[in-house]
């Protein structure tokens, strides 16, 4: 039996890569990611909290088999109010984000998914339930495979086409996850946080493209956990964009802005999103791709990007 892991990637530091030239001379590939998520209200027998990292002002973490009304309804604000406020910003400014969605959100909050489909925005599967992490099945790959398959089947039923990219809930995948996704025909895996450029992950079924995510450029860590003010949030996003845009003149960079409707969709925060998009629209050499577009493009580009044997 082979000892080869189901997935792996090479360590290739930036100086060992050829310059990456995005389509149409873009310096930066900018992705706005709206995470449209659904948590189970409770889970029988679960003693650890269902909602790690909830509102800092709400003490006393509750076990997962108890309905935590404060944390659950804080998140549901994003479904009832926040997502529509965020959609309005993108509509008025003419920008199409990439949206991730749990399988359960497609069942329980179908009106949100229908609104995304009507706009033609990218939808990326994001596990079955937000609180049911793939790492729970790290030692039972067939159970993980079944969760992924169930999510992808519901996605195809609702969206009308097979999924091409995947982001695990809580960015918690396993070494098996990229291989299962490649087996099921996906081209992009988005859980890793280790780069500003796409790269290839080798799997037992062939290569899949890593389109990196960001835990730092993310409204949850900026505002809900990090405590930034709306003004400071705008400044942070601009500084990040400017640095990556300048570096991208030499070799292209990805900037992913992670958004959660219950965080950025609050009335006192949405201005940060609106002002940053207005800022970006005044800049040149910006590519606003879907994850599928990045991955499809990079599969052809990768042989020119990596300098082997240096």
Instruction: Provide the spatial order of strands within the biggest beta sheet.
Output: 1-7-8-6-5
Oligomeric form: single chain
The H/E string reads: EEHEHHEHEHEEEHHEHEH
- In CATH, what is the class? Alpha Beta
SS-derived structural category: alpha/beta
CATH homologous superfamily classification: Glycoside hydrolase/deacetylase
Rounded mean pLDDT is: 94
Tell me what you see in this structure.
With 310 residues, the protein is an alpha/beta fold. It has one domain: TIM Barrel. Helix content is 38%, strand content 13%. It is built from nine helices and ten strands. The protein has helices at residues 69-93, 103-108, 110-119, 141-159, 177-183, 219-224, 230-247, 270-281, 291-305; strands at 7-8, 28-36, 98-101, 122-125, 165-166, 188-189, 199-203, 208-210, 253-259, 286-287. The strands form two sheets. A five-stranded mixed β-sheet has the order 1-7-8-6-5, sandwiched between helices. It is globular, with a radius of gyration of 19 Å.
